[in-house]
Amino acid sequence: MATTQSGGRKPGNSTRHVGAVDGVKGRAGRILLKAADNGTYETAKEQETAVLVSVPPRRQSEAQTTEYLDELAFLIETAGATATKRFVQRLEKPDIRTYVGEGKLAEIKAYVQHEGTSMVVFDDDLSPSQLRNLEAELLVKIVDRSLLILDIFALRAKSATSRTQVELAQYQYLLPRLTGLWTHLDKQRGGVGMKGPGETEIETDRRIVRDRIAFLKEKLEDLDKQSHTQRKARGGTIRVALVGYTNVGKSTLMNVLGKAEVFAENKLFATVDATTRKVVLDNTPFLLSDTVGFIRKLPTKLIESFKSTLDEIREADLLLHVVDISHPNFEEQIQVVNDTLGDIGAADKPMLLVFNKIDQYKPDDAEQDPFGEVLDAEDDGTAPRPPLAQLQATYMAKLHDPVVFVSAQERTNLDELRELLGKRVVALHHQRFPYQANTWASE
Ligand SMILES: Nc1nc2c(ncn2[C@@H]2O[C@H](COP(=O)(O)OP(=O)(O)OP(=O)(O)O)[C@@H](O)[C@H]2O)c(=O)[nH]1
Ligand SMILES: [Mg+2]
Question: Which residues are annotated as a binding site for GTP?
């Protein structure tokens, strides 16, 4: 594994930006864990370590900050490294030069050098100049949120389409960052057997990257035409898409509803490729698609390049919005999903809210039966966790729509979900195809 050691860079591949080496070769490459020359990915022999850094606004609660850092740690773990330390600095906004202030930067540097940490991970996107300054100062791999998410997507993407989509997003991320990343290294290098790239080489690389972006866009258009034709062929059937925050249990639900074998794992972005299965409820067949999960601060370039995967959502007749009720931030996650649906032009779709993982849900009084009485919550800055019955009533009143509480894993209340889903599908079917019988005969 090409790990950049603390305090010094390995000659060779680390003189370029972390994404560049695999990128210029022209395939969606891993960034944190480097691909071997033969194109296979090494399993980490020695785990990479990461320091997490966040600059929350002053008004953000302590609990919220911890939640966000927990999520970042989870992302890092999913990418194959371990978070060993967290640095938080409350600022009105991040420092324009180095994201954190001077004092905090010195603190981080001291820690990284002492511990030999392999990378520093930032819970936001860094500007090209911040990235350059931080690399020059900390002398280890600098990873921002987009780079990290792109890396996980590169790890997960399996189909030709999703691999092309990830690769496109990686190049788009890389392009504006090519310049700075080279120049500061030039200054540091000082000629000890490390002949650095000059401006001409940067220009050449930029051109290669631009060409590659154009090529990938074309390739995606072709792939898109094919999948559009495929989707059109399914024209006479109601389409339902599972949507939701990452790791809420969409694939698990797909497996139990669609009797499919979809990869589900307690890691973020287990699913990057959309999968579709035919399901029959109330004698009405429909197509159920499992889709990629959303996350806060999802890189916009990634959303754009994932257009054809997201078409699965845009073209659906009904969305099954899965929520992990046991997550302390589930309400914000609902909001992130709704906002992202808005961004991709799928905000006004009929939706059924499915609250999953009720087996893991603990109301504030853990002794209490989850469907029991309301109790006062302790004020520790986190939202109170009322009993499920109360939550259900609140959401049903708010949405004027039934909501279902299930455990996909424990198979709890799935009949209720099937009944509700079946009714919606039959209604949509009659609406869409008024002259068509809703039986297998029509298929
Ligand atoms: N306790 C509990 N765990 C569940 C339940 N449903 C799913 N899980 C677990 O949650 C984790 C994530 O499940 P997935 O089905 O992969 O979630 P996903 O929404 O498809 O995630 P991404 O594809 O990463 O967006 C897995 O470890 C599942 O076993 C549930 O009802 N209860
Ligand atoms: Mg999944």
Answer: 244-251, 269-273, 290-293, 356-359, 407-409
- Residues forming a β-bridge with 87: 53
Full residue range of the structural domain in which residue 345 is found: 234-442
Q: Name the pLDDT band for 351 (thresholds 50, 70, 90).
A: very high
170 and 255 in a common domain: no
Q: Which residues contact 77 (CB under 8 A, 6 or more apart)?
A: 83, 267
Q: What is the pLDDT of residue 11?
A: 34
| 289: enclosing H helix or E strand | strand 284-290
- CATH number of the domain enclosing 382: 3.40.50.300
pTM: 0.81
Four-point Cα dihedral 115, 121, 123, 125, nearest 10 = 150
For residues 267-277, give the mean pLDDT. 83
- Do residue 186 and residue 322 come from a single domain? no
User: Using a 6 Å cutoff on CB, does residue 362 contact ligand 1?
Assistant: no
Ligand nearest to the CA of 265: 1
Residue with the smallest CA separation from ligand 1 atom 8 is 249
- Per the domain annotation, does 226 fall within a domain? no
Does the Cβ of 65 fall within 6 Å of ligand 1? no
Tell me: do 328 and 207 sit in the same domain. no
Bridge partners (DSSP) listed for residue 125: none
